[in-house]
Amino acid sequence: MHQLQSNPMKGAKELPIKMTDKRWPSEDGWVKMQNVVTLEDGTKVNVHFVYNKITGQFDDFKFK
């Protein structure tokens, strides 16, 4: 999880989902991202978050 905290974009992929939430409108640069992190014990954690391509901001991290 340290990788994700220090650099959320490393290994992240943009998902082909148009942002429709009014808090993160796609027309303002927001995109849905996914990063799969492998823990030391081999467990994989799927992390979704939103990223603004214009401002470089991150928000709404969800761990699955």
UniProtKB/TrEMBL annotation:
Domain of life according to the entry: Bacteria
According to UniProt, the name of this protein is Uncharacterized protein
The organism encoding this protein is: Listeria welshimeri
Q: Taxonomy-wise, where does this protein's organism fall, top ranks first?
A: Bacteria, Bacillati, Bacillota, Bacilli, Bacillales
